[in-house]
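thought: fold this chain, then report.
action: predict
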Amino acid sequence: MIDLFSFDFMQNALFASVLVSVICGVIGTLIVINRMVFIAGGIAHGSYGGIGLALYFGIAPMLGASLFALFLGLLIAYITHQNSTRIDSLIGVIWAFGMALGIIMTDLTPGYNVDLMSYLFGAILSVSNEDLYGMSGVFALVLAFALLFYKQLLAMSFDAQFAKLRGVNVTLLYFGLVLMTALGVVIIIRAVGLILVIALLTIPPYIAEKMTNSMGSMMLISSFLSVLFCAIGLILSSFFNLSAGASIIMVGSISFFIQFLYSKWRAPN
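observation:
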């Protein structure tokens, strides 16, 4: 098993797993606490439009996805902040628009030879050094955002009205959180794909939430669980020749069901 991680591609995958896991632990905790999972899903699936546009105009697909995800993040943040009714329908429309745009632009791209399945289901075993640089940049941004604004994020997450009374600029903080979510989502897509991104964002924080009452501890436990899921998933995918992204999510899902059943068994009758 040790020999397995002597290969460069496995070392890159493991390093990417750590970066992605911390991003998931921090951003996932915040979106779960703030009930923003559907917003993250809308950005994730809508960002496929950026991949289609990037292919059509001949630029890097992940760059196109990042820029488009930031645009969608700003749009969704504005809509959800201004209008609290029918949010699910509005995000659903944006979700569908992004996916449709991506498919149409891909169809219009002459002679494209990009493996689109890697963006749908992830390709962590083919992560390049350039991908690691991008992941490291987003990792640093997310970590800096969480550390600099931890107290404000904590106040907004548990009582936004009280946070406003305490002088916290909730609007600006909310926009910042959505933009960090957009960047994080695109990076996670590289690992597990846009189909599975929400699972990696939500499963570790959900399990961590049952183990602690502290937001900071929840972030740390979520990050550790994500690293564990990724490492086990990578090993299983290598031994059994399975999709790495799907293997990671399967490990996380089984862990979720075990924790759920255990909590039900331990609950008083």
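thought: worth noting. The chain has a mean pLDDT of 84.
final: tokens above.
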